[in-house]
Design a protein that fits this description.
The complex is a heterodimer of chains A (260) and B (261). With 260 residues, chain A is mainly α. Helix content of chain A is 82%, strand content 0%. The chains are: A mainly alpha (260), B alpha/beta (261).
Chain lengths: 260, 261
Protein backbone atom coordinates (compact mmCIF):
# COMPACT_ATOMS: atom_id res chain seq x y z
CA UNK A 1 0.00 0.00 0.00
CA UNK A 2 1.39 3.37 -0.83
CA UNK A 3 1.76 6.39 1.40
CA UNK A 4 -1.28 8.16 0.06
CA UNK A 5 -3.72 5.30 0.64
CA UNK A 6 -2.40 4.85 4.18
CA UNK A 7 -2.88 8.55 4.91
CA UNK A 8 -6.58 8.24 4.11
CA UNK A 9 -7.23 4.67 5.20
CA UNK A 10 -5.69 4.82 8.67
CA UNK A 11 -7.68 7.81 10.01
CA UNK A 12 -10.85 6.31 8.51
CA UNK A 13 -10.15 2.98 10.15
CA UNK A 14 -9.53 4.71 13.47
CA UNK A 15 -12.83 6.56 13.14
CA UNK A 16 -14.71 3.30 12.62
CA UNK A 17 -12.95 1.72 15.61
CA UNK A 18 -13.80 4.69 17.87
CA UNK A 19 -17.45 4.73 16.80
CA UNK A 20 -17.82 0.99 17.33
CA UNK A 21 -16.09 1.22 20.73
CA UNK A 22 -18.25 4.22 21.70
CA UNK A 23 -21.40 2.31 20.77
CA UNK A 24 -20.20 -0.80 22.64
CA UNK A 25 -19.43 1.18 25.81
CA UNK A 26 -22.83 2.87 25.78
CA UNK A 27 -24.60 -0.51 25.38
CA UNK A 28 -22.40 -2.45 27.77
CA UNK A 29 -22.72 -0.02 30.67
CA UNK A 30 -26.27 1.04 29.74
CA UNK A 31 -25.26 4.73 29.85
CA UNK A 32 -28.34 6.96 29.64
CA UNK A 33 -28.62 9.18 26.55
CA UNK A 34 -28.55 12.39 28.65
CA UNK A 35 -25.03 11.47 29.76
CA UNK A 36 -23.56 9.93 26.64
CA UNK A 37 -25.78 9.24 23.65
CA UNK A 38 -24.85 6.40 21.32
CA UNK A 39 -23.47 7.29 17.87
CA UNK A 40 -26.79 6.15 16.40
CA UNK A 41 -28.72 8.67 18.52
CA UNK A 42 -26.35 11.48 17.54
CA UNK A 43 -26.77 10.58 13.89
CA UNK A 44 -30.53 10.40 14.42
CA UNK A 45 -30.53 13.90 15.95
CA UNK A 46 -28.52 15.13 13.00
CA UNK A 47 -31.21 13.81 10.60
CA UNK A 48 -34.22 14.70 12.70
CA UNK A 49 -33.12 18.26 13.53
CA UNK A 50 -31.50 18.84 10.17
CA UNK A 51 -33.58 21.90 9.29
CA UNK A 52 -32.85 23.56 12.64
CA UNK A 53 -29.18 22.58 12.69
CA UNK A 54 -28.56 23.46 9.07
CA UNK A 55 -30.05 26.89 9.64
CA UNK A 56 -27.80 27.34 12.68
CA UNK A 57 -24.79 26.17 10.70
CA UNK A 58 -25.50 28.80 8.05
CA UNK A 59 -25.81 31.50 10.72
CA UNK A 60 -22.51 30.53 12.32
CA UNK A 61 -20.74 30.19 8.98
CA UNK A 62 -22.10 33.59 7.90
CA UNK A 63 -20.76 35.25 11.04
CA UNK A 64 -17.47 33.40 10.73
CA UNK A 65 -17.09 34.48 7.15
CA UNK A 66 -17.90 38.12 7.93
CA UNK A 67 -15.45 38.11 10.83
CA UNK A 68 -12.82 36.42 8.68
CA UNK A 69 -13.27 38.88 5.81
CA UNK A 70 -12.96 41.83 8.17
CA UNK A 71 -9.93 40.26 9.83
CA UNK A 72 -8.28 39.57 6.46
CA UNK A 73 -8.85 43.08 5.13
CA UNK A 74 -8.10 44.71 8.49
CA UNK A 75 -4.98 42.67 9.11
CA UNK A 76 -3.54 43.16 5.63
CA UNK A 77 -4.36 46.88 5.45
CA UNK A 78 -2.98 47.52 8.94
CA UNK A 79 0.19 45.58 8.09
CA UNK A 80 0.59 47.66 4.91
CA UNK A 81 0.20 50.83 6.96
CA UNK A 82 2.77 49.54 9.47
CA UNK A 83 5.14 48.80 6.63
CA UNK A 84 4.74 52.20 5.00
CA UNK A 85 4.75 54.39 8.09
CA UNK A 86 6.92 53.27 10.96
CA UNK A 87 5.24 55.70 13.36
CA UNK A 88 1.90 53.99 12.76
CA UNK A 89 3.50 50.68 13.64
CA UNK A 90 5.08 52.09 16.80
CA UNK A 91 1.73 53.57 17.86
CA UNK A 92 -0.58 50.65 17.16
CA UNK A 93 1.42 47.46 17.43
CA UNK A 94 1.44 47.23 21.26
CA UNK A 95 -2.35 47.52 21.30
CA UNK A 96 -2.72 44.87 18.63
CA UNK A 97 -0.68 42.58 20.87
CA UNK A 98 -2.77 43.46 23.95
CA UNK A 99 -5.94 42.71 22.00
CA UNK A 100 -4.47 39.40 20.97
CA UNK A 101 -3.22 38.22 24.37
CA UNK A 102 -6.40 39.12 26.25
CA UNK A 103 -8.59 35.98 26.17
CA UNK A 104 -11.59 36.61 23.96
CA UNK A 105 -13.83 34.71 26.40
CA UNK A 106 -13.13 37.52 28.86
CA UNK A 107 -13.85 40.29 26.37
CA UNK A 108 -17.03 38.77 24.92
CA UNK A 109 -19.37 39.58 27.86
CA UNK A 110 -18.29 43.22 27.75
CA UNK A 111 -18.82 43.46 24.02
CA UNK A 112 -22.28 41.95 24.48
CA UNK A 113 -23.15 44.80 26.83
CA UNK A 114 -22.08 47.55 24.43
CA UNK A 115 -22.93 46.10 21.04
CA UNK A 116 -25.95 44.44 19.49
CA UNK A 117 -25.41 40.69 19.59
CA UNK A 118 -24.67 40.33 15.90
CA UNK A 119 -21.99 42.99 16.05
CA UNK A 120 -20.56 41.64 19.30
CA UNK A 121 -20.13 38.17 17.80
CA UNK A 122 -18.58 39.71 14.71
CA UNK A 123 -16.20 41.76 16.84
CA UNK A 124 -15.10 38.65 18.72
CA UNK A 125 -14.46 36.77 15.51
CA UNK A 126 -12.49 39.74 14.24
CA UNK A 127 -10.41 40.20 17.39
CA UNK A 128 -9.14 36.63 17.48
CA UNK A 129 -8.68 36.31 13.73
CA UNK A 130 -7.02 39.55 12.68
CA UNK A 131 -3.79 39.22 14.64
CA UNK A 132 -2.28 36.25 12.78
CA UNK A 133 -3.04 38.03 9.51
CA UNK A 134 -1.42 41.20 10.80
CA UNK A 135 1.63 39.45 12.23
CA UNK A 136 2.21 37.24 9.19
CA UNK A 137 1.69 40.02 6.67
CA UNK A 138 4.01 42.32 8.62
CA UNK A 139 6.68 39.63 8.61
CA UNK A 140 6.19 38.93 4.91
CA UNK A 141 6.29 42.59 3.87
CA UNK A 142 9.50 43.19 5.76
CA UNK A 143 11.40 40.11 4.62
CA UNK A 144 11.69 40.92 0.93
CA UNK A 145 15.02 40.13 -0.77
CA UNK A 146 17.05 43.33 -0.29
CA UNK A 147 18.59 43.00 -3.73
CA UNK A 148 15.12 43.09 -5.29
CA UNK A 149 14.44 46.26 -3.28
CA UNK A 150 17.70 47.67 -4.67
CA UNK A 151 16.63 46.68 -8.17
CA UNK A 152 13.30 48.50 -7.83
CA UNK A 153 15.26 51.44 -6.43
CA UNK A 154 17.59 51.39 -9.44
CA UNK A 155 14.62 51.64 -11.80
CA UNK A 156 13.13 54.48 -9.75
CA UNK A 157 10.04 52.55 -8.66
CA UNK A 158 7.59 54.53 -6.57
CA UNK A 159 6.70 53.46 -3.03
CA UNK A 160 3.38 52.26 -4.35
CA UNK A 161 5.07 50.15 -7.04
CA UNK A 162 7.42 48.66 -4.46
CA UNK A 163 4.47 47.79 -2.24
CA UNK A 164 2.15 46.39 -4.90
CA UNK A 165 4.60 44.88 -7.38
CA UNK A 166 7.21 43.59 -4.94
CA UNK A 167 6.31 43.47 -1.27
CA UNK A 168 2.75 42.16 -1.51
CA UNK A 169 3.54 39.30 -3.93
CA UNK A 170 6.66 38.45 -1.91
CA UNK A 171 4.56 38.36 1.26
CA UNK A 172 1.82 36.26 -0.30
CA UNK A 173 2.95 32.93 1.22
CA UNK A 174 3.00 34.47 4.70
CA UNK A 175 -0.30 36.26 4.12
CA UNK A 176 -1.93 32.99 3.07
CA UNK A 177 -0.47 31.20 6.09
CA UNK A 178 -1.97 33.95 8.26
CA UNK A 179 -5.35 33.58 6.56
CA UNK A 180 -5.29 29.83 7.08
CA UNK A 181 -4.88 30.35 10.82
CA UNK A 182 -7.42 33.19 10.83
CA UNK A 183 -10.10 31.00 9.22
CA UNK A 184 -10.18 28.57 12.12
CA UNK A 185 -9.83 31.33 14.68
CA UNK A 186 -12.74 33.36 13.37
CA UNK A 187 -14.94 30.28 13.83
CA UNK A 188 -13.66 29.98 17.41
CA UNK A 189 -14.28 33.70 18.00
CA UNK A 190 -17.85 33.46 16.73
CA UNK A 191 -18.55 30.37 18.85
CA UNK A 192 -17.05 31.90 22.00
CA UNK A 193 -19.18 35.02 21.63
CA UNK A 194 -22.35 32.99 21.06
CA UNK A 195 -21.64 30.81 24.09
CA UNK A 196 -20.98 33.94 26.14
CA UNK A 197 -24.30 35.35 24.99
CA UNK A 198 -25.77 32.06 26.17
CA UNK A 199 -29.41 31.77 27.00
CA UNK A 200 -29.74 35.52 27.21
CA UNK A 201 -28.84 35.77 23.58
CA UNK A 202 -31.27 35.89 20.75
CA UNK A 203 -28.82 34.09 18.49
CA UNK A 204 -29.51 31.01 16.48
CA UNK A 205 -26.02 29.87 15.57
CA UNK A 206 -24.59 26.42 16.28
CA UNK A 207 -22.92 27.50 19.51
CA UNK A 208 -26.21 28.84 20.74
CA UNK A 209 -27.80 25.46 19.87
CA UNK A 210 -25.11 23.71 21.90
CA UNK A 211 -25.76 25.94 24.92
CA UNK A 212 -29.50 25.58 24.52
CA UNK A 213 -29.35 21.79 24.10
CA UNK A 214 -27.22 21.65 27.24
CA UNK A 215 -29.88 23.42 29.27
CA UNK A 216 -32.54 21.09 27.86
CA UNK A 217 -30.41 18.00 28.40
CA UNK A 218 -30.83 17.24 24.71
CA UNK A 219 -27.34 15.73 24.57
CA UNK A 220 -27.70 13.97 21.17
CA UNK A 221 -28.44 17.34 19.55
CA UNK A 222 -25.53 18.85 21.42
CA UNK A 223 -23.22 16.24 19.91
CA UNK A 224 -24.76 16.72 16.48
CA UNK A 225 -24.17 20.49 16.65
CA UNK A 226 -20.62 19.93 17.87
CA UNK A 227 -20.01 17.54 14.99
CA UNK A 228 -21.23 20.15 12.51
CA UNK A 229 -18.98 22.79 14.08
CA UNK A 230 -15.95 20.54 13.71
CA UNK A 231 -16.84 19.76 10.12
CA UNK A 232 -17.25 23.48 9.42
CA UNK A 233 -13.81 24.14 10.88
CA UNK A 234 -12.27 21.38 8.78
CA UNK A 235 -14.02 22.69 5.67
CA UNK A 236 -12.73 26.21 6.29
CA UNK A 237 -9.21 24.89 6.71
CA UNK A 238 -9.43 22.80 3.54
CA UNK A 239 -10.81 25.65 1.46
CA UNK A 240 -8.09 28.04 2.61
CA UNK A 241 -5.39 25.41 2.08
CA UNK A 242 -6.66 24.80 -1.43
CA UNK A 243 -6.67 28.54 -2.10
CA UNK A 244 -3.11 28.77 -0.85
CA UNK A 245 -2.06 25.84 -3.01
CA UNK A 246 -3.66 27.35 -6.12
CA UNK A 247 -1.96 30.68 -5.62
CA UNK A 248 1.50 29.36 -4.78
CA UNK A 249 1.87 26.12 -6.70
CA UNK A 250 3.81 27.59 -9.59
CA UNK A 251 6.49 29.31 -7.63
CA UNK A 252 6.76 28.81 -3.89
CA UNK A 253 9.13 26.43 -2.12
CA UNK A 254 6.37 25.19 0.17
CA UNK A 255 4.62 23.70 -2.86
CA UNK A 256 7.75 22.11 -4.23
CA UNK A 257 7.64 18.34 -4.40
CA UNK A 258 10.96 16.70 -3.50
CA UNK A 259 10.95 14.76 -6.77
CA UNK A 260 10.71 17.90 -8.89
CA UNK B 1 41.26 70.59 -15.08
CA UNK B 2 40.00 67.43 -16.66
CA UNK B 3 42.64 65.47 -18.54
CA UNK B 4 41.66 64.62 -22.13
CA UNK B 5 41.07 61.06 -21.06
CA UNK B 6 37.90 62.19 -19.29
CA UNK B 7 36.21 63.22 -22.46
CA UNK B 8 36.00 59.60 -23.49
CA UNK B 9 34.90 58.28 -20.17
CA UNK B 10 31.31 57.44 -19.45
CA UNK B 11 31.80 57.57 -15.71
CA UNK B 12 34.60 58.86 -13.51
CA UNK B 13 35.08 58.18 -9.83
CA UNK B 14 36.96 61.02 -8.18
CA UNK B 15 38.60 60.23 -4.85
CA UNK B 16 35.53 58.29 -3.77
CA UNK B 17 35.35 57.22 -0.14
CA UNK B 18 32.69 55.34 1.76
CA UNK B 19 32.39 54.95 5.48
CA UNK B 20 29.42 52.87 6.61
CA UNK B 21 27.18 53.88 9.48
CA UNK B 22 28.89 51.31 11.67
CA UNK B 23 32.22 53.07 11.15
CA UNK B 24 33.69 50.57 8.71
CA UNK B 25 35.80 52.28 6.08
CA UNK B 26 35.00 50.43 2.84
CA UNK B 27 36.53 52.71 0.24
CA UNK B 28 39.11 55.47 0.48
CA UNK B 29 40.44 57.58 -2.35
CA UNK B 30 39.13 55.44 -5.19
CA UNK B 31 39.65 57.13 -8.53
CA UNK B 32 38.76 55.47 -11.79
CA UNK B 33 37.77 56.39 -15.33
CA UNK B 34 35.68 54.01 -17.35
CA UNK B 35 35.64 54.63 -21.07
CA UNK B 36 32.53 54.26 -23.17
CA UNK B 37 32.26 50.78 -24.63
CA UNK B 38 34.97 49.39 -22.40
CA UNK B 39 34.94 46.07 -20.57
CA UNK B 40 36.68 46.72 -17.27
CA UNK B 41 36.94 44.42 -14.25
CA UNK B 42 37.32 45.39 -10.62
CA UNK B 43 39.40 42.65 -9.04
CA UNK B 44 40.05 42.27 -5.35
CA UNK B 45 39.61 40.04 -2.34
CA UNK B 46 36.26 39.72 -0.59
CA UNK B 47 35.46 42.81 1.42
CA UNK B 48 37.71 45.18 -0.55
CA UNK B 49 34.77 47.43 -1.30
CA UNK B 50 34.46 46.56 -4.99
CA UNK B 51 30.74 45.79 -4.64
CA UNK B 52 30.33 49.01 -2.69
CA UNK B 53 32.01 50.92 -5.51
CA UNK B 54 29.61 49.33 -7.99
CA UNK B 55 26.58 50.26 -5.88
CA UNK B 56 27.83 53.83 -5.66
CA UNK B 57 28.15 54.01 -9.44
CA UNK B 58 24.60 52.63 -9.71
CA UNK B 59 23.34 55.30 -7.35
CA UNK B 60 22.16 52.67 -4.87
CA UNK B 61 24.55 53.99 -2.26
CA UNK B 62 25.92 57.48 -1.72
CA UNK B 63 29.65 58.10 -1.35
CA UNK B 64 30.67 59.77 1.91
CA UNK B 65 33.61 61.42 0.17
CA UNK B 66 34.52 62.41 -3.36
CA UNK B 67 32.25 62.44 -6.39
CA UNK B 68 30.95 60.47 -9.34
CA UNK B 69 31.11 62.34 -12.62
CA UNK B 70 29.28 61.57 -15.83
CA UNK B 71 31.26 63.44 -18.50
CA UNK B 72 28.76 62.55 -21.23
CA UNK B 73 25.90 64.07 -19.34
CA UNK B 74 23.83 63.61 -16.24
CA UNK B 75 21.29 61.74 -18.30
CA UNK B 76 23.38 58.65 -17.91
CA UNK B 77 22.81 58.69 -14.21
CA UNK B 78 19.39 60.19 -13.72
CA UNK B 79 17.44 58.62 -16.54
CA UNK B 80 16.13 55.22 -15.57
CA UNK B 81 17.26 52.32 -17.67
CA UNK B 82 20.62 53.86 -18.52
CA UNK B 83 22.25 51.57 -16.01
CA UNK B 84 21.74 47.82 -15.86
CA UNK B 85 22.71 45.94 -12.72
CA UNK B 86 23.35 42.23 -12.33
CA UNK B 87 23.61 41.03 -8.76
CA UNK B 88 25.62 38.15 -7.36
CA UNK B 89 22.39 36.17 -7.05
CA UNK B 90 19.88 36.04 -9.91
CA UNK B 91 17.51 38.20 -7.81
CA UNK B 92 14.40 37.20 -9.76
CA UNK B 93 10.81 37.52 -8.63
CA UNK B 94 9.84 33.86 -8.06
CA UNK B 95 6.15 34.57 -8.58
CA UNK B 96 6.65 35.98 -12.07
CA UNK B 97 7.47 34.20 -15.32
CA UNK B 98 10.80 34.73 -17.06
CA UNK B 99 9.20 37.19 -19.48
CA UNK B 100 7.55 39.16 -16.67
CA UNK B 101 10.86 39.30 -14.81
CA UNK B 102 12.69 40.62 -17.85
CA UNK B 103 9.89 43.08 -18.54
CA UNK B 104 10.07 44.55 -15.03
CA UNK B 105 12.35 47.57 -15.71
CA UNK B 106 10.13 48.61 -18.61
CA UNK B 107 6.85 48.11 -16.80
CA UNK B 108 8.11 50.06 -13.77
CA UNK B 109 8.77 52.92 -16.16
CA UNK B 110 5.17 52.70 -17.34
CA UNK B 111 5.65 50.85 -20.64
CA UNK B 112 2.58 48.86 -21.63
CA UNK B 113 3.17 45.08 -21.92
CA UNK B 114 2.40 45.17 -25.65
CA UNK B 115 5.07 47.81 -26.22
CA UNK B 116 7.60 45.94 -24.10
CA UNK B 117 7.15 42.63 -25.93
CA UNK B 118 9.77 43.20 -28.61
CA UNK B 119 12.37 44.46 -26.18
CA UNK B 120 11.76 41.47 -23.90
CA UNK B 121 12.04 39.04 -26.82
CA UNK B 122 15.28 40.68 -27.98
CA UNK B 123 16.80 40.61 -24.51
CA UNK B 124 15.87 36.94 -24.08
CA UNK B 125 17.32 36.13 -27.49
CA UNK B 126 20.63 37.76 -26.47
CA UNK B 127 20.98 35.29 -23.60
CA UNK B 128 19.60 32.31 -25.52
CA UNK B 129 16.42 31.89 -23.49
CA UNK B 130 13.78 32.62 -26.12
CA UNK B 131 12.13 29.27 -25.47
CA UNK B 132 11.77 29.86 -21.74
CA UNK B 133 9.75 33.08 -21.68
CA UNK B 134 6.81 31.48 -19.91
CA UNK B 135 8.85 29.36 -17.48
CA UNK B 136 9.08 30.24 -13.82
CA UNK B 137 12.44 30.88 -12.14
CA UNK B 138 12.26 27.75 -9.99
CA UNK B 139 12.04 25.63 -13.15
CA UNK B 140 15.42 26.92 -14.34
CA UNK B 141 18.98 25.94 -13.48
CA UNK B 142 21.31 28.37 -11.70
CA UNK B 143 23.01 29.35 -14.95
CA UNK B 144 19.71 29.97 -16.71
CA UNK B 145 18.47 32.12 -13.84
CA UNK B 146 21.59 34.21 -14.17
CA UNK B 147 20.91 34.57 -17.90
CA UNK B 148 17.43 35.87 -17.09
CA UNK B 149 19.01 38.35 -14.72
CA UNK B 150 21.35 39.53 -17.50
CA UNK B 151 18.44 39.76 -19.97
CA UNK B 152 16.57 41.93 -17.46
CA UNK B 153 19.59 44.23 -17.15
CA UNK B 154 19.82 44.48 -20.96
CA UNK B 155 16.14 45.08 -21.65
CA UNK B 156 16.35 48.85 -21.27
CA UNK B 157 19.38 48.92 -23.58
CA UNK B 158 21.52 50.54 -20.89
CA UNK B 159 24.72 52.43 -21.74
CA UNK B 160 26.38 50.98 -18.68
CA UNK B 161 26.13 47.42 -17.42
CA UNK B 162 27.26 46.82 -13.84
CA UNK B 163 27.88 43.22 -12.82
CA UNK B 164 28.59 42.25 -9.23
CA UNK B 165 30.32 38.82 -9.20
CA UNK B 166 27.44 37.44 -11.28
CA UNK B 167 28.98 34.03 -11.91
CA UNK B 168 30.64 33.44 -8.55
CA UNK B 169 28.02 30.94 -7.39
CA UNK B 170 28.01 28.86 -10.59
CA UNK B 171 29.93 25.73 -11.40
CA UNK B 172 32.98 26.08 -13.62
CA UNK B 173 31.47 24.61 -16.78
CA UNK B 174 28.45 26.92 -16.56
CA UNK B 175 30.68 29.86 -15.70
CA UNK B 176 32.87 29.33 -18.77
CA UNK B 177 29.79 29.12 -20.98
CA UNK B 178 28.33 32.29 -19.50
CA UNK B 179 31.69 34.06 -19.85
CA UNK B 180 31.62 33.34 -23.59
CA UNK B 181 27.98 34.34 -23.91
CA UNK B 182 28.56 37.57 -22.02
CA UNK B 183 31.48 38.43 -24.32
CA UNK B 184 29.42 37.80 -27.43
CA UNK B 185 26.58 39.97 -26.07
CA UNK B 186 29.11 42.68 -25.26
CA UNK B 187 30.62 42.49 -28.73
CA UNK B 188 27.20 42.68 -30.33
CA UNK B 189 25.85 45.54 -28.24
CA UNK B 190 29.07 47.40 -27.43
CA UNK B 191 27.88 48.62 -24.06
CA UNK B 192 30.21 49.60 -21.28
CA UNK B 193 30.64 46.84 -18.72
CA UNK B 194 32.03 47.16 -15.19
CA UNK B 195 32.52 43.64 -13.93
CA UNK B 196 33.31 42.92 -10.30
CA UNK B 197 35.03 39.62 -9.60
CA UNK B 198 37.44 37.95 -7.22
CA UNK B 199 38.64 35.54 -9.88
CA UNK B 200 41.95 36.37 -11.55
CA UNK B 201 41.22 33.94 -14.38
CA UNK B 202 37.77 35.26 -15.08
CA UNK B 203 38.95 38.89 -15.12
CA UNK B 204 41.79 38.14 -17.55
CA UNK B 205 39.51 36.18 -19.86
CA UNK B 206 36.84 38.84 -20.05
CA UNK B 207 38.41 42.25 -19.66
CA UNK B 208 40.20 44.83 -21.71
CA UNK B 209 41.43 46.33 -18.48
CA UNK B 210 41.69 45.03 -14.93
CA UNK B 211 41.62 47.33 -11.93
CA UNK B 212 43.28 45.59 -8.99
CA UNK B 213 42.02 46.89 -5.65
CA UNK B 214 43.56 46.76 -2.18
CA UNK B 215 41.68 45.23 0.74
CA UNK B 216 39.67 47.45 3.05
CA UNK B 217 39.74 50.34 2.60
CA UNK B 218 39.52 49.72 -1.13
CA UNK B 219 41.50 51.85 -3.52
CA UNK B 220 43.09 51.26 -6.92
CA UNK B 221 46.37 49.39 -6.55
CA UNK B 222 47.15 48.75 -10.19
CA UNK B 223 45.56 48.85 -13.62
CA UNK B 224 46.53 46.14 -16.04
CA UNK B 225 45.54 46.20 -19.71
CA UNK B 226 44.77 42.90 -21.46
CA UNK B 227 45.38 43.90 -25.08
CA UNK B 228 44.13 40.63 -26.55
CA UNK B 229 41.70 41.07 -29.44
CA UNK B 230 38.15 39.77 -29.34
CA UNK B 231 36.48 37.44 -30.02
CA UNK B 232 38.24 35.46 -27.34
CA UNK B 233 37.35 31.81 -27.07
CA UNK B 234 38.34 28.68 -25.20
CA UNK B 235 41.65 28.56 -27.08
CA UNK B 236 42.59 31.81 -25.39
CA UNK B 237 41.89 30.20 -22.02
CA UNK B 238 44.62 27.63 -22.64
CA UNK B 239 47.10 29.92 -24.39
CA UNK B 240 50.53 30.95 -23.11
CA UNK B 241 49.48 34.60 -23.34
CA UNK B 242 46.56 33.93 -21.04
CA UNK B 243 48.78 32.19 -18.50
CA UNK B 244 51.19 35.14 -18.63
CA UNK B 245 48.49 37.72 -17.98
CA UNK B 246 47.05 35.59 -15.20
CA UNK B 247 50.44 35.48 -13.52
CA UNK B 248 50.88 39.25 -13.91
CA UNK B 249 47.45 39.95 -12.44
CA UNK B 250 47.87 37.39 -9.66
CA UNK B 251 51.17 38.99 -8.69
CA UNK B 252 49.56 42.43 -8.62
CA UNK B 253 46.74 41.06 -6.50
CA UNK B 254 49.21 39.46 -4.08
CA UNK B 255 51.09 42.75 -3.80
CA UNK B 256 47.82 44.60 -3.23
CA UNK B 257 46.94 42.18 -0.41
CA UNK B 258 50.40 42.71 1.07
CA UNK B 259 49.89 46.44 1.09
CA UNK B 260 46.46 46.22 2.57
CA UNK B 261 47.39 44.00 5.50
Amino acid sequence: MNERVLRTALPALLLVVVIVAWDAVVRLFAIPAYVLPSPGLVFGALIEDRALLFHSLLVTLGLTFEGFALAAVGGIVLAMAFNQWRLVEYSFYPYAVILQVTPVVAIAPLLLIYLPQHLAVLACAWIVAFFPVLANTTLGLSSVDHNLIALFDLYKASRWQVLVRLKLPAALPQILAGLRIAGGLSLIGAVVAEIAAGSAGAGSGLAYRIAESGYRLNIPRMFAALLLLSLAGVAIFLVLSALSHLMLRRWHESELRPDN
Amino acid sequence: MAPPNHLNSIVSLRDVGKTFDNGVLALAGLSLDVRAGEFVSLLGPSGCGKSTALRIVAGLSAPTHGAIEWPQGRATKSATGEIGFVFQEPTLMPWASVARNVELPLSLAGTAPADARDAVATALAHVGLSDFASSYPRELSGGMKMRVSIARALVTEPQLLLMDEPFAALDEITRFKLNNDLLSVWQTLRRTVIFVTHSVFESVYLSQRIVVMTPRPGRVFAEIAIPVPYPRDERFRTSVDYAGYCRQVAEALAAAMEQGS
